[in-house]
Design a protein that fits this description.
The complex is a heterodimer. Chain A is mainly beta. In chain A, a hairpin with a 6-residue loop joins strand 3 and strand 4. Chain A is globular and about 40 Å long. In chain A, about 35% of the residues are buried. Chain B is mainly β. In chain B, the strands form 2 sheets. In chain B, strands 3, 4, 5, 8, 9 and 10 form a 6-stranded antiparallel beta sheet that branches. A 4-stranded antiparallel beta sheet of chain B has the order 1-2-7-6, with no helix packed on it. Chain B starts with a strand and ends with a strand. The chains are: A mainly beta, B mainly beta. At the A-B interface, strand 3, strand 7 and strand 8 of A face strand 4 and strand 9 of B.
Amino acid sequence: QSALTQPASVSGSPGQSITISCTGTSSDVGGYNYVSWYQQYPGKVPKLMIYDVSERPSGVSHRFSGSKSGNTASLTISGLQAEDEADYYCSSYTSSATVVFGGGTKLTVL
Amino acid sequence: QVQLQESGPGPVKPSQTLSLTCSVSGGSIGSDGSYWTWIRQHPGKGLEWIGYIYYRGATYYNPSLKSRVTISQDSSKNQFSLKVRSVTAADTAVYYCARGDPYTSGSHIDYWGQGTLVTVSS
């Protein structure tokens, strides 16, 4: 299985909105509504931010939202804050009953 | 609240077998329907899904690692384990054990261990 494709980096200013894309195939992202997003600070454990494409776990800010169109999923962060600066990873369930991650995106808050 | 803790013997020499155990509390390995998962992260790199074991003992592996990896469970100890055979320096990584959500085929991780760095070096 090939890793999902994410941009290596994105950036935005405080208060702005940014979107991180995650592109797969019809065998993973496009075939199931099982896309998740994780936030990871350096040296820390990843944290689940979005699951099932657009669901937010309890405690995750409403500024984080997810969507999907075809084989591409997206994570949008609105009202960007300095604390959002982190690495973000998408993942998807696959037709082989496995899970595949994206390569990760480094978010810089300018 | 599910808690997971990785443990292992420390550095591994090339060509040997890497063995890690994950101790679980707050959840039942053998009966709660969870997907007990191993994930690794090479230094400075992204996350790589290794595989999971379903509570009934079925296993699913990353195709790129399948020939070298075995995940097993010990319900009596509420632990699950990872073995990676014939390791090289490319297997040096932080290894996480985690719980895949039981309601969506393990597709997302809701609980993580703290991770343990395994170094492969002669």
